[in-house]
Specification:
Keywords: Cell membrane, Ion transport, Membrane, Transmembrane, Transmembrane helix, Transport. It contains 17 helices and 2 strands. By secondary structure, it is mainly alpha-helical. A hairpin with a 4-residue loop joins β1 and β2. It is globular. 47% of the residues are buried.
């Protein structure tokens, strides 16, 4: 039996243990009121409101996440293997997606604020469906257009869904019944579970149909169902209205005038840029570490991926366990410092200890940091960004990230020395970011 089966059992046991602990703790139904500094017991009606909110939001969002995870693992393979494209062409396709995401970041959020965030989520479902269907074509220009549309969709995914959820949470008055941090943490746990099952479903579809296009078709079906649920169950909410350049300028002003938003933009750029680097290199790093150990067989990537998702879920659960109530700015920044420290260690260790187990557990440590990062970053953004300009600022915050990824991909090489250099640079950048963010704690 592969040792990774044991690792998966251990990590999944930790997920279940944390879930059980939180379930018992939250069974008391107490929330800490930061203003009154007292424990508040929500009413039955308030708890019912939370259940309805979770059902409305996560039923649709879960399908969107499933669509992403179903086709995500096959994007590179379908271009390289089924379409027979060169490595350079595949890299150009990936870069096209990030360039489109960077270019659209300036206006996508503004349009969503002006015309409605719910409409923005529906537009995402349409655009991402078109992007998935584009892989059915063998024409190169169609593939490039599909990647560009997909990049536009990704900007909407990260800018609009969370914006709609935060505003709806506020308008329904749910703060006395559940904290936003708990919702963000639940979102990470749900994403991890969906990622594992989507990976199994995608592999099963490919095995049955003997083509890697079927996960993309299944993703379109998920997006269509998500669009139906959004249309039926979601209310519309808006930001501050404005036209074209005025809206973009207002978003930029909100960022420049608020040093905390600039710090979060830097943190998002560095951490999420490192995440993209990790996604690109982790499988090859595992192969090299196994070869160094004298093993000739390939690592069980399905089990390894499941382990990484369990580590991410443990990170998300840890956030909710440590902060069951509403989280203040100072607490969230302190948590982000922990995230950056863990992530930097996870990048540097594999470059110093060339062993398979060390590489694997370093990657698990990084995914644990990822699980902590998302609810922490979401909490910080909620605290420092005004709701009137939320979607446009969220979109603008992703612009430098997408440009950084394009630059990183343009210098990518396949040799081990280059990969270790990239990991070391990412680790150092995370350390520097941690030091700069420390100022926020002492503000």
């Amino acid at each position: 039996m592969e040792i990774y089966g044991v690792y998966f059992a251990v990590l999944m046991s930790l997920v279940i243990a944390q879930w059980y602990y939180r379930h018992r703790h939250n069974g008391k139904s107490e929330q800490y009121d930061m203003e009154k500094e007292t424990l508040v017991v929500p009413s039955i009606e308030a708890r019912r409101g939370v259940s309805n909110f979770k059902r409305d939001y996560f039923s649709a969002y879960g399908l969107v996440v499933a669509a992403d995870w179903l086709q995500g693992p096959y994007v590179y393979s379908i271009y390289r293997q089924e379409r027979g494209l060169s490595e350079g062409t595949v890299a150009a396709l990936f870069s096209t997606s990030f360039i489109a995401a960077a270019g659209s970041a300036a206006f996508v959020g503004s349009l969503a604020d002006q015309y409605g965030r719910r409409k923005g989520c529906l537009v995402f479902c349409l655009l991402y469906s078109i992007s998935c269907l584009s892989v059915l074509s063998a024409r190169l220009e169609v593939l490039f257009i599909g990647r560009a549309i997909g990049g536009l969709g990704v900007t909407l995914l990260y800018a609009v869904f969370e914006t709609w959820m935060v505003t709806e949470y506020t308008e329904r008055g749910l703060s006395q019944a559940i904290s936003l941090g708990s919702i963000f943490s639940f979102s990470i746990t749900l994403s991890g579970i969906i990622a594992i099952f989507s990976g199994i479903a995608g592999e099963t579809l490919v095995t049955w149909t003997r083509t890697e296009t079927t996960p993309f078709i299944a993703a379109v079906a998920c997006l269509a169902l998500a669009a139906v649920l959004i249309s039926r169950n979601w209310n519309e909410n808006y930001g501050q209205s404005g036209s074209g350049c005025t809206s973009i300028w207002e978003g930029l002003q909100a960022m420049v005038k608020n040093k905390n938003i600039m710090r979060l933009t830097l943190t998002s750029c560095v951490f999420e840029g490192s995440l993209h680097i990790f996604i690109f290199f982790w499988s090859q790093a595992m192969i090299v570490s196994r070869i160094e150990a004298g093993e000739e067989t390939m690592p069980p990537f399905g089990l390894v991926f499941s382990c990484l998702m369990c580590a991410m879920m443990n990170g998300g659960n840890a956030f909710s366990t440590m902060h069951p109530g509403q989280v203040g700015y100072r607490q969230a920044v302190q948590m982000m410092l922990v995230v950056l420290a863990l992530a930097s260690s996870a990048f540097i260790l594999p470059t110093r200890i060339m062993q398979e187990k060390a590489t694997f557990w370093s990657f698990c440590l990084f995914e644990f940091a990822v699980g902590l990062y998302w609810p922490t970053m979401s909490t910080l953004r909620t605290l420092v960004v005004e709701d009137a300009v939320r979607a446009r600022v969220y979109g603008l915050m992703r612009m430098p990230l997408n440009l950084l990824v394009v630059v990183a991909l343009s210098f990518t090489q396949g040799d081990e020395g280059h990969r270790n250099t990239i990991f070391s640079v990412a680790g150092v950048m995370l350390v520097v970011n941690c030091l700069l963010l420390t100022r926020s704690v002492n503000r």
